[in-house]
Specification:
Elements (H helix, E strand, L loop, with lengths): L1 H13 L6 E4 L3 E5 L5 E7 L6 E10 L2 E6 L1 H15 L4 H15 L5 E2 L6 E4 L18 E3 L6 E5 L4 E6 L5 E5 L5 H6 L5 E2 L2
Antiparallel strand pairs: 1-4, 2-3, 4-5, 6-7, 7-8, 9-10, 10-11, 11-12
Helix pairs in contact: 2-3
The structure holds zinc ion.
Length: about 190
């Protein structure tokens, strides 16, 4: 049991989930009416894999609690269903590696000397890849979680600004992809 749990925790961590443990538990979701209220009827969240993922929930500076991570539990269930349907072990291993790689969120990109980070909008699916154009995907400011917007300000420069806290950073116009922005983050300039 401990070995199985360790293997599953390894897969979940490799996929980018911050988790502390798994527990044997079938989770249920509630069907909702059009007005958003619960109908009282439930449906299984993880029918193919009766393991619920439990994450640390950061409550305050000195208090941590645990919570059931529905997103990670659904992901694990889908992975188990997909991989179990493959008869060939080698094919299954390749598929598992692919599913794990696809689940990893973008590594945050540092925008300023002060450590302001560009991060993916939470729960973004599919995750951002390094060769994608920065104006095509939703990103937020890691400090305040405000939406980051891109504007052309001159032929040579674009601005990245945070809708919430008004952070403004200038980046050279020839940086088009997330990968280019990450490699050349030293070229960004702070706005006023
Ligand atoms: Zn901000």
């Amino acid at each position: 049991m401990a070995e199985r749990d360790a293997a599953i925790l390894g897969v979940l961590r490799a996929a980018g989930f911050e988790i502390c443990r798994v527990e044997v538990n079938l989770l249920h979701g509630y069907y909702r009416d059009q007005d958003g209220s619960s109908t009282g009827e439930t449906y299984p969240i993880n029918p193919d894999c009766p393991l619920a993922v439990v994450s640390n929930n950061w409550i305050s500076f000195d208090l941590q609690g645990e919570r059931r991570d529905y997103q990670a539990t659904i992901w694990l269930n889908d992975v188990v269903r997909t991989v179990a349907a493959l008869n060939d072990d080698e094919v299954a291993a390749v598929k598992l590696a692919q599913l794990v790689a696809e689940a990893v969120p973008m590594v945050p990109i540092r925008l300023t000397w002060f450590g302001d980070m560009m991060v993916e909008q939470p729960s973004l699916d599919p995750h951002i890849r390094e060769d994608e154009m920065i104006w095509k995907r939703s990103v937020v400011h890691g400090r305040c979680m405000g939406r980051l917007e891109l504007h052309q300000v001159s032929d040579e420069w674009r601005s990245i600004s945070c809708r919430k806290c008004r952070l403004r950073v200038y980046v050279p116009s020839n940086l088009n992809t997330f990968g280019e922005l990450r490699k050349n983050a030293h070229l960004t300039k702070m706005g006023d």
